[in-house]
Amino acid sequence: MNEKNSGLLLCIAMLVMLGAALVPIFGVKLPWLRYVFAGGAVLTLIAQVLTPAPANTLRVRRLARINVWAAVLYCVAAACLFINDAAMQRSWIAFLLAGAVIQIYATLMLAKLTKKA
Question: What confidence category does residue 85 fall into, taking pLDDT thresholds of 50, 70 and 90?
Fold first, then answer.
């Protein structure tokens, strides 16, 4: 998969996850939203795995792998939504935020390094 297609898939997947995460904030309780969030998380993981590293340096490859780990954290957050434990169902937000922070860092650093090269 080329970079353009994987970037489009990543944007769609992140928007799906964002929508599924924001709807409960407005007080709407829909039982199928966890499936939508899980689908977005899996699509994010697929897009991150299939996205080629923009350069072949060690640091850029490491940052690309960090993006994959952020997608894994999104999948863990989705798994927490399916566990029948109140504490685990609340902890999905922590995994979502951890993945978001890691992805923001890695994406900004990737953009900075590819601009240099």
Answer: confident
Please enumerate in sequence order all residues whose Cβ is within 8 A of that of 15, keeping only pairs 6 or more positions apart, or say none: 40
Can you read off the two tokens belonging to residue 61? 């490859």
Q: Is the pTM of this model over 0.85?
A: yes
Q: Which residues contact 103 (CB under 8 A, 6 or more apart)?
A: 67, 70, 71
Largest Cα separation within the chain, whole Å, is: 48
The CB density around residue 15, as the number of other CB atoms within 10 Å, is 11
Quote the tokens at residue 92: 């999905």
Full residue range of the structural domain in which residue 101 is found: 3-116
Cβ-contact 110, 64 below 8 angstroms: yes
Residue 27 carries which DSSP code? T
- Whether 44 and 80 have beta carbons less than 8 Å apart is answered as no
In the chain, the number of structural domains is 1
